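User: Show me sequence and structure for the first protein, then do the same for the second.

Assistant: Starting with the first protein.
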Amino acid sequence: MDRPLYPFTAVVGQERAKQALLCLAVEPRIGGVLLCGEKGTAKSTLVRALGGLDGVRLLELPVSATEDMLLGGVELEAAVRTGRRTFQPGLLARADGAVLYADEVNLLPSALTAALLDTLETGVCRVERDGISHTCPARFALVGTMNPEEGTLRPQLLDRFGLYVAVTGEREPEARKEVVRRRLAFEEKTAAFRAQWARREERLAGQLAAARALLPQVDVGEAEEQAACLLARQANAAGHRAELAILHTARALAALAGRTYINLEDLHTAAELALPHRRREGSEGPPPRQERGEEPPQGSGADGQAGGGDGPADESHPADGPPQEGVQAPAPPTEQGPSRERLEQGENLYEVRALLTTRADRLARRGSGRRSKTRSATRRGRAVGDRIPRGKAEDLAVGATLRAAAPYQWSRGGGQSGLVILPPDLRVKVRESRVGADIVFAVDASGSMGAARRMKEVKEAVLSMLMDSYQKRDQVGLVAFRGGEAAAVLELTRSVELAQRELQALPTGGRTPLAAGLEEARRMLERQRRRVRDSLPLLVLITDGRANFSRGGDPVEEALRAARRVAEAHIPAVVIDTERQFVSLGLAAQVAQVMGAPCYRVEELRARPLAQLVRGHSPAAG
């Protein structure tokens, strides 16, 4: 028996999320809606309630779904009865012409994400498995919900969502009280509560039906096309899906308002829904509502960053662009005695979750954590598929085994006495779990880093990464290089508190032995790899790149050779460049290039949209 749905119109607030979902219900060509925000903000409730409205067919993709469930496969009963392989449609085939809802879409296994992307691209579900070759139409609108604290979304899938809404909880006490009051009323007297809102639900369903009927009459002229292109260009959006999403959404908004023409307000509202997740660094000017001197709508982050955010803002940085450089040049680097910067708890922190995210690979690992998806070498984790066993068949995949054996029952004499299963039919589960990473921070503590409060920025960035590592149950180590040497300030440990204390006490001063810092960090990670064969290493180098000390030869060349040895050791890396732009030599970027590592300016950790940060640095990323 299906559980009664909470009425769509009874949800308090979340007007922007409601607007996006209603637009999709009117015009499926928008492509999809992604609701991103903290837990407990009615994301799933809203989407499921949309499926309760007349005229909206919604299917749900569970986070525990397997490839069989999604794509389809052999119909077991028919195979046993007739000995023939008959295709049984999966969720994608059944979703043709409907809305497909993926809760926690960011946690979907890679294989399911790849299948979704392929089907969204072609509108056709292709199945080549279990001796079956089948294609069927699968054109659907995708709705996803996610909590960014649990992980990021692949950029390819993110771009497939036509609209994006950053969802936050209600802040006003009265609104919060109303949320609780309605929810309690629904739980205690469900039927009476639904009856109370039935008239509003019927009116909304009627409005949707009228809007769908009116939609073909809503024209898009040259002026609207030009405006959409201008808005997308101002956001520096990649590709041309942004313009199409704006125009499709503007048409839906006009139809919902009962109009056959698009006005300027429709275009600006559509842009606010279609551009946040596509806005890139270097966009021209602020978002549309700010240009018009209006307040940004509730739940829609002005800078379009994933998850909105209630964290402290950086008062010196505009929300819609990189930090502004001062007119005066910084004081020259000092090489006098060590200095100490006090980093107070509660200082401005950086958004770094995606920066340290590692991709899943094909290696089976033991261990625990929350950083990276990986194939599990134990029976822990979620089953994401099946395979033919190598050696003894443990952790049997019963369904896959039965499907493999079913077509041969006639020839084997199977029947009412039961199925005949032979060793070649056996399949075992492929499981996926998350493990923590081994992250070593190599921090430049030389005199040049002590100038212009640069070390304070570095400590803020590293502290943010340490907080993320604590949530993901990583092991962290700290290497500092200054003067004429590099030292392991902290060996790999799960005690992030200890790492924070060492970071707070880190002095600055002296020359920059960059090569020594890279060598020490590499050796620490290689020691860990020898201890734990299937570890997930990551080297985070934070420096201005101005190597000026070596034990022999040119300091820069020596640093590049050390970087090359990191790459040869197959240790993934990330470089945070702290050099000031107006005096930039680009040496940190050169080191990053040699290591095959992404390089970010320290300011980008605040200013750059989350979706554009690097998603993976694992040694066998796939």
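Switching to the second protein now.
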Amino acid sequence: MGVMGFAARGGLLRAVPKGLSVAARFVFVCVLASSLTACGLFGKKDVPPPKEIEIKPAPAAASLDFVAVASPLANPGPDGVPAPVVMRLYQLNAETNFSNASFRQLWEEDAKTLGPTMLGKTEIYLTPGGIEHVKANLIEGTSIVAVVVGFRNFENAKWRAMVGLQGEKRFKLKADLKTLAVDLGPQD
């Protein structure tokens, strides 16, 4: 929509003094629009781009306080009825093998697929609407905490998530298990 289209519907023309010719009104509207646009150019401070988060391994004796919360509608079957599900909690020292693996590779042969990047694994059994807590010591060298959920319909699910650690002594993470997705982040 051009200035004339906007102006013809009475937009900026309400600010134009009456009695001016159409050409004078057009010039007035253009000057007014340019002035308003220029106002946004001043006083704007350059905001630096966000810093990348540096992933650091967990220090010795670091702990993990992990909570998994399942939706009452989690893991529906073909009949739509929710069902219990297994979630695997991994401690990793690198993300590449985990990120590049298929669901079947991780579910059926995770030790082979992840190789030496897998430092530890815990299996958690979740019922729809259930909550499970895991408190554990992080294995030295862990820089990534990741989860894989064994959804029945994994082909149409977001079945994996991971979080990089920042070298703190205590980590509080929460996995939100939705109908066909898992999200991993800090506890509230």
